[in-house]
Amino acid sequence: MLAAAGISAVFKTHVERRAIAELTVQLDQVLAGLVRAEDGLVLERAPADPRFARPYGGLYWQIRTDGQLLRSRSLWDMTLALPPDVLADGQAHTHRLPGPDGRPLLVLERSVTLPVRLGSGTARAAVAMDADDLQQARQAFVTDLAPYLIVLGLALIGAGWVQVALGLRPLRSLGARVAGLRAGRVARMGTDWPSEVVPLAAEIDALLDAQEADIARARTRAADLAHGLKTPLQALMGDAERLRAAGAPQAAAEIEDVVSAMRRVVDRELARARSAAAARTAKTPVAPVVRQLIAVLRRTPDGSRLHWTSDIDERLIAPLDAQDLAEALGALAENAARHARSRVQIAAQAGADSLRITVRDDGPGIPDARRDALTDRFARADQGGGHGLGLAIASDIAEAADGRLDLADARPGLSATLVLPAALGHEPKG
């Protein structure tokens, strides 16, 4: 639209310039045709254009002297109402004035000093043409130009779309590479990018390097802290043995419970520190971990009295380190064994965007008001055994893998489900 308006304005200026040039020629012809007769000035040689002779023909001329007014037949009974200009000899002005039938006119006026043969004195000569002709020429030009402008506009839109599509293609590839980083399919952004994107990719790689360095330092600090705690814990276990030997089994048991809880926390933090660096690329088949877990729990006092079943597709892969998966499922299975009446079932199912591993028991279940709080550290459904860390640890592991832990009433019992990303999907057999 702006281009059409601009081109139309340029064409209008050009047409008006050509019209004024034509009027200048016509004015020169009018002045050249003047002669002096007995009763004053007359136009002996009128301009050749027939429109001057046809009433309201579209071209008009007029000459006014101190005592005489000459005008073309085309003006009929009308006079051009020229503004009261003060013009130097030979100076010309253009005006836009109303003409016959109220139509606008483009007027060229010139002031001339008449020679002696024409009686001397000053004359104001003017020629005019219908401005509607100029407007019609402009409209016809725009009409003729419109199809080409439309084609040009479509071509520019297409070129802009191609430019944007090609220009943004590296950004789409960049997004896919970032998704690959998140899923663990690639380790770095690399340098195979257009020059405009290379600085961004380099900054992302530098950020990953800094993150891995921070993780390494955190692992080192966690390991140092855990190893520093193991010696005092071992000493406390020795104190518990001496108390038991001295006839204080109750105090010894309490110390052993506390030490066991602390050791479990320490072992958990060591495991998480060891697996942090490989978190993005961790892959573990679910079925073998579940089988090994059931085999261990069947030898425990709580697990030996229960019927254990599992329904796990051998191809299912969890986006977790094997130790993390065993830790999370172990916490859920131990909690189920502690509260189940007769059976515990472990099942897994892969959806379009998630992997769900469910541990279900047939125990008393948990009231809705207490269920959400059970994933807090040290929260327990009852006052029995356990240290309140199991469900919280399972929830922590799921969240670290961009998943979650869902608890639901199984009627009877509790259904605890690890919901994990399905980016790794299924592992084909063979």
UniProtKB/TrEMBL annotation:
It is found in: Membrane. Keywords: Kinase, Membrane, Phosphoprotein, Transferase, Transmembrane, Transmembrane helix. GO terms for molecular function: phosphorelay sensor kinase activity. InterPro entries: HATPase_C_sf (IPR036890), HATPase_dom (IPR003594), His_kinase_dom (IPR005467), HisK_dim/P_sf (IPR036097), Sig_transdc_His_kin-like_C (IPR004358), TCS_sensor_his_kinase (IPR050428). The chain crosses the membrane at residues 145-168. Its EC number is 2.7.13.3. Signal peptide: none annotated. SUPFAM superfamilies: ATPase domain of HSP90 chaperone/DNA topoisomerase II/histidine kinase, Homodimeric domain of signal transducing histidine kinase. GO terms for cellular component: plasma membrane. This is histidine kinase. The keyword Transferase applies. It catalyses: ATP + protein L-histidine = ADP + protein N-phospho-L-histidine. Its main location: membrane.
